Amino acid sequence: MNHKAFILSSVFCQVILVSLRAQISGDLKQFLWQNNFSELIENYAEEKITLQDEGLWQKQFSQRSYREEPGLRVQLFAGAVEENAQTAAADIRSLSLDSVYVLEENGLFKVQLGNYQERLAAEKMLDQLRFREITNAWIVQTTIHVPKDSVNQALPAESGEDSSEYSQLIYTIQIFVTRDAANTEQVLQSLQNRLEQEGWVIRSGDFWKVVVGNFQEEAAAREFLNLLRSSGFPDAWLTQVNPSRE
Amino acid sequence: MQIWQWRTVLLFFFLLFFGASCAKRPITPVEVLPAKIPTIRVALTDQLSRGSLQFIDAYQLRLEEANYLLDSTLGNFQVSWDNGQLTFRSDSRFFSFEQFERIEFTALNAGEFNWMGISYQGKIIFVKNQNSVAVINELLLPDYLKGVVPHEIPSHSEEYYQAVISQTIAAATYAYYSLKNPASAYFDLYADNRDQIYQGTRIKTPLVDKAVTESMGLFLQTAGGKPVKIQYHSTCGGMLDYLPITEQSPIQTGNIKDQSNERVNCEISPQYRWTKQMTAQDLLDNLTGMGLVTSAQAEQWKNQGYSLKLEILSRKSSGRVEKIRIELAEQEIILSEWQIRRFLADKQGNPQFSSLFIIKSSPKNPDKFHVIGAGFGHGRGMCQWGAIGLALRGKPYNEILSFYYPELQLTKLY
Question: By the 8 A CB rule, do B57 and B109 touch?
Fold first, then answer.
């Protein structure tokens, strides 16, 4: 390939592959106009291409503003009749307390409220309900919706920013949260007594959290979570923290 | 008078008569074609269901019981063909026909009528053909050309004039072939893209009118004097296509570069080069529209995701894509010629400009690809924008036509 052809080729590839638009303009127009089309075919045609469409479902999943992760919700109703569930959901929606979900699991229709990563927040919601004389609600562990831009979100490669911070995240298990730092001592002692595990306390705003475990792999963390739940910490849940920031 | 005198007189008259009959006569030209301007029958539709008809000028309808005079004062006729009954209904007149073969409205002078919002010259005829009715406009061939050529070639600039004459002769040649080889017993050709698009007097332009007058009676024929089903197209993109020699089209203009003085004639065309971006989903939609994939299957793929492989199997020597292979899930589809342009149609369903194109994948978007193409149309016969390019360089119409149809000759038939 001579020098001129090389330059033309570079211009072509850059303009075509990076900024090809419906309207021909600028360098590309000049390039296409100046060249015999049979030469364009000979030098630049791809006679075989493969297109991949990930599908609508995957696109919708990628475009969701939230991600799913284990957490807590307040459940207000569970029954076999969907109509009753919808009525209960409509009642609770009218109070404008938080997001309301109607779910169907194994033929049982459930009405749940909120998405809580911390038990204290869920309990606070329970108190609000009790204040409104709704006393038959309870906290359940389930999959919750968490905004994508919250701390646990995004793989470094996808976000393309602050990748060093994400790479330092570890999996750990949160077992307690309180507004009074003094209360954490008792939980740490209990952890030591029952499982001979050292926990530590991290501060998050006005709250103090007791967490235990330090895992790079989610699977190992989940295994430890199950151990904790079966050892007297039923409300323990999985989370990710950055130890260098805590 | 003596008997010999009578004989002399008779001999004199006999010789006079014999001499006169043996005198040299002028050579009569062998007139194989009509000496007068031919009329042509154009099917505005061959499947009438509903229509609207208005007489702009005076027309007459001759029936057994009366001779009706119809003009614009009668307003708009709603025409319908229902259950074997053809009806014409306006505010002031009503005609209904059951047993008929042909209903013919004839202009008293050079009249115009309006059918479905478009004005036409000449007769309008309703012909029953088994269970359907065809609506036919019968008019003089030059008037027909005035309604065809403006649709085929830009005719707003005097500079294009030689190209406009070239196109007029090409359209006349096509029409003349149809006169000799009519599309049906009732009409010669269609008014839509099955033949040449004909739009009555709506699109008449002064330049085309002038070209029709100047080229009156001129047609292209084979050296043997046969009419030709001629082809032409908008823009060849610099490379004319090969046209196989057949009895109908004994032309071979293919595989030549549309070049004059090192410049491509049609580079002024808006479709000389073009690019566009398409997605896998666009292709899937087009395949569904072509009936090659079911809607249900397409919907499933759209939801769940799919892989589509596109391979150009062969190109003609002009570079035009001849065959492509599509691999979609387990399905293999081979497309050729016109189907390829439909497969690569835009979102509005307009077929791709031409089959002279290359494809480029998009590394950042695996569901997208780019198409870079040249020209508009099949590339066979005269390139209309090439003709304009030649006209702008001062070439007369006979040279333009001999460039694109080297094996045909220009003949004046009337």
Answer: yes
DSSP string, B301-326: HHHH-EEEEEEEEEE-TTS-EEEEEE
User: Which one-letter amino acid corresponds to residue B213?
Assistant: T
Helix then strand count (H, E) for chain B reads 10, 25
pLDDT (tens digit per residue) in B96-154: 999 899 999 999 988 999 999 999 999 999 999 888 999 999 999 999 999 999 999 99
3-state secondary structure B348-369: CCCCCCCCCEEEEECCCCCCEE
- Is pLDDT at B21 greater than 50 in this prediction? no
- Give the closest residue to B386 by CA, choosing from B197, B171, B160: B160
Residue A152's φ and ψ, nearest 5 degrees, are -80, -5
Report, in this order, helix, strand and coil percent for chain B, each rounded to 5. Answer: 25, 30, 40
For B130-139, the pLDDT digits (tens) are 889 999 999 9
Would the CB atoms of A51 and B283 count as touching at under 8 Å? yes
Closest approach of B206 to chain A, Cα-based (Å): 33
Tell me which residue in B276, B302, B369 faces A51 most closely, judged by beta carbons: B369
Domain boundaries, chain B: 40-136, 143-255+380-412, 273-374
Taking the CA atoms of B264, B270, B275 and B278 in sequence, report the sign of the dihedral they define. negative
